[in-house]
Amino acid sequence: MKLKLPLLFLLLTLAVFPQVSERLAVVTSAGTKYIPAYERQGTLYFSVIHFAEALSINYYFNADAQKIELKFSSYNLKITSKNPFIVLTGRGSDFSEEYQFDYHPAYYEQVKKRPFVLGMTAWNFADFGSEFRGDAIPHVNQKGLVNFNRSPKNIYYWW
Hints:
By secondary structure, the chain is an alpha+beta fold. The protein has helices at 4-16, 48-55, 97-112, 154-158, and strands spanning 20-28, 31-40, 43-46, 58-62, 67-71, 75-80, 83-90, 124-126, 128-129, 140-141, 144-146.
């Protein structure tokens, strides 16, 4: 009886949750690489780590928090197992007001084109002190919608 119960459970699990093991082809300029993939109820699942390795993308994985961050040249893509959403953050080093006025609307246009993205937000409301910043204003992170003294930047009015 002890052997029959696990065997019955296994058969029922396979019948209720069918999975088809496949290989996903990732085509790059260096050639085609295959990563494991599984299809379940019409949705294809694959490991983000395998995907990053196939594309030779730098990534950071935190096993305790169950999150991974893919590091592209101009943005980071953050994914966690506890959150069904993907977070996209910029990695630019030009934080001038002109650049902000270029990239905030550009990000918004990208969000509008992707129905699976539910929203976006500015990184920070106000510029703030940061000991390690060496930008145009030393020791100030300038990614805010308003200046360090809380005077509005042009991008403040766009939001």
